[in-house]
Amino acid sequence: MANKDNENSCCAGSGCCETNQNTDNSRRSFIKTVSLSAAMLAINPIKLMAGPFSETDFDHVIPADKKLTKAWIESLYARGEAMHATGQDLKYIGMPINGIGTGQIYLGGDGRLWRWNLDGEPDDVWKEMGSGHKYMKPDTPYSPIDQGFALQVGSGKSKRVFRLDANGFQDIKFTNKYPMGDVQYADTNCPVTVHLEAYTPFIPLNRDDSSYPVIVMRYTIENTSEEEQDIAIGGWIENFSNYRTGKENSNGVRLSQYQELEGLSVVECWTESLDDDGEDHKIPFHHANDFGAVALGVLGEEKADFVDTMRSQAGEVNLFTANKPNNKAKHIQKRPFNDKAYASLGREFTLKPGARKTIAFTLSWRFPNARYVEGYGKTEWSRDINYYATQWPNASTSAKVVALKEDELRSETQKWVETWYDSTLPYWFLERTFIPIDCMQTQLAKRLAMQNNRYGLDEGVSCCEGNCTHVWHYAQGVSRLFPVIERECREQVDLDLSLKADTGAMNFRCSTKAFKEAPDGQCGTILRVLRESQMTTDYTFLKSVWERTKLTMDYVIKTWDEDEDGVMTGAQHNTLDGNWFGKVHWLTNMYIAALRASAVMAKQMNETAVAQRYETLATKGAAAMVDLMWKDEFNYFIHIPELEPEKTRGSTTGCHIDQVLGEFWLYNVGLEPLLPRDKARKALESLWTYNFAPNVGDFRKEHPKGRWYAAEGDAGLVMCTWPFGKENAQKTNFHKYYNECMSGFEWQVSAHMIWEGMLEKGLAIGKAISDRYQPNLRNPYNEVECGDHYARALASYSAFMAMCGYKYDGPEGKLAFGPRMQQDHFKAAFTTAEGWGQFIQKIENETLIAELNLRYGNLKLHEFTLDKVKGIQVNRVIVTLNGKKIDAVFKAEQNTYVIQFKNGVRMDLNSKLEIKYSV
């Protein structure tokens, strides 16, 4: 909370610095009568984190001295508690709860399932999304399907029905355990409490078992009264196949059927056409995107106690008066397409006082048709097939598979949840760095069976198709959690469909649209090849793509660095949707980072001369970037345009958010930086000073144009500011992007700062994003940019890696850690090519101890590196695997301790590697 007394605000480590005295009355007039604290108090008292400010603090609109309060600074480091919500704060929560690439379904804060979108048709108007309105006007629960669960409770003839949502219970609490949901229900009028655990299997490194079109809803009912209670719990589901296209093509029939399968009782609903060949049909009935099937099941060998396959109404009315399963329900039931059609089932049991029982339901689906094809050789928007639909013939079969494996799938999912959140790091940090992976559980991600099962990844939900290289290269989470997906995207898309095999030119958007290169995306993809190789156990993947990778690196050199001076020039299209000309700091930085990565890969492929050429160019480019683009008086890099002012597009003399983006990338693949460390850190310090706004609303009052991803009362890192004035720049077009706060860009700066040791500032940028996505304000599971669940936000995972000091090279068998905080007691999850687990660092009796506990898969190591800890003296190590001492070679380097295992070490499931560093 902000304090009125200046002495209670925190300066040290909070960006306090001298205020530039160059006064501009017109820029400061709007804050003459209102301080930041007062403005923010009116918006949301919980978010007060800075101030108070005076008029002179706003000489450059964004205060140089952030005046972050002591309480807010402390919140950066505090362990805190899991995000939770009650009452009105539940309304925005929408946690993606379906498998990877299977559509989009949200778990709401009150446990209802909403925003069912299984056919890929946009739910939102592009004008709304593209203008940034989704941040300012967050969605609340809606759905094309009526589906839900309810509870009947009582003793004797006195029974009441409670819907399992906000309409049925007074007291509901949602607690984040993403990828699992946790909802608790209580009501003074209800003699039982209910605990919902909702999930779809989510197991890092196991893509297939994380891609089921199945949701499991486990309800645990506890009798809190002093009387025995008769309980019935049931659910209903609407047959909504062809709900869009059927309006024009209603010559069909709705069908439903009850089945008793191994471990599952299930009702399934689907449709059939009576005349697919009719001339009036615009789309064949079974080819429509919204043609499909849905199923509701109850897990266990016990059969359902009541079933209704011909239900004609939604909701809980008459839900519990349905008949016991009979032969009629087991036959396919038919009704006219235009009828409202539902199916339901449930269980009955008795609970003694204090007793509890869990009933688990499944919701599953099969919508085979995809209509978002972008691949070459096909007409845009032509038909494809969702890959998951090729794995199961109907909606019930996938639920049966989950039912048979439910103990294992749930156990592995829970194990990951426990591994991730059982950490010493703050809950807010763990949540915000991990949650953006949920974009893979939305319409953004689809796997297309008619295109060699490749992934089609949009930038955001219903937004900007084509595995866009200059957006997706920021994303780090998928590569560390499901590396096979990223490898396949390199093999099948970027270095295949998007590549011109004769030149090495790479289309930045894999689509039927005009071919266009973007050097930031092309360089980022080269860096991604190295990253994907590091998340394997040998060089098989790299060997398979190396010639194409080398070809595309050489194309970048030939096209944008023809004189080979290490600096890019010419028309440089990029993620800010335009051609920049001249010497562009951040694009050259991406270029030299790609050169360094290519040099490393060339060495690994035993091409020494090629590696030397790339490394020489990278070194030349780094020196030239400093000589030409570093501005001493600004303390940051600038863009030097080559066109006259009226034609120039770019940041020119501005302080631009991505100016050292390539250095960020080098940290992510464990390579040495190219730029002088003092210059890189000063550039990051300048971004903090000139771009981090404790209240973005104050900045946007002066610069109102542009989209809104941070608003009045929100803190954020602005894309570009001009603290020293604009030079040689187009007078218009500076509002798009430059005035905005977009979390993906912010996360890369946050991560880079943490890597560079600027811990507090990096945390502050991340916490500002976290504050913007609290459930009382908007959906905490949806970081918005151009569209919902925007992929660039996956840069957040790099902040987690930076905090751990995590580096991994699978083919070389190298793993390294260097916690940036809590060095005396640190605990966090880690992933490798074939296994994941928990890393622990602690100090006991002046002995530094590192532990690796493997909880999934296996791990092969030849070398383990740990950063030195100040104040701890080390001369020797003792290494044990599962309590048995193993041989190792120890050496202390300048900043690290390196342990090499001559014959290698293999860790299997549940094994523990412990290293004790002592005098």
List its traits:
ten-stranded antiparallel β-sheet; alpha+beta; six-stranded antiparallel β-sheet; disordered N terminus; 919 residues; globular; 21 helices; 26% helix
Description:
This protein is of the alpha+beta class and 919 residues long. It contains 21 helices and 41 strands. It has a 10-stranded antiparallel beta sheet with strand order 1-7-8-9-10-18-14-13-12-16. Strands 33-34-35-41-37-38 form a 6-stranded antiparallel beta sheet, with helices on one face. Strand 12 and strand 13 form a beta hairpin. It is globular. The N terminus is likely disordered.
Question: What's the gist of this structure?
Answer:
This protein is of the alpha+beta class and 919 residues long. It contains 21 helices and 41 strands.
Unreliable residue runs = 1-46, 277-281
From the alpha carbons, calculate the radius of gyration and give it in angstroms: 29 Å
Oligomeric organization of the protein chains: single chain
N/C terminus separation: 45 Å
User: Helical amount among residues, as a percent range?
Assistant: 25-40%
Quote the average pLDDT: 90
Strand order of the largest sheet: 1-7-8-9-10-18-14-13-12-16
Main beta sheet strand tally, sense and closure: 10 strands, antiparallel
Strand content: 25-35%
Count of extended strands: 41
Number of helical elements: 21
From the spread of the alpha carbons, the general shape counts as: globular
The class by helix and strand makeup works out as: alpha+beta
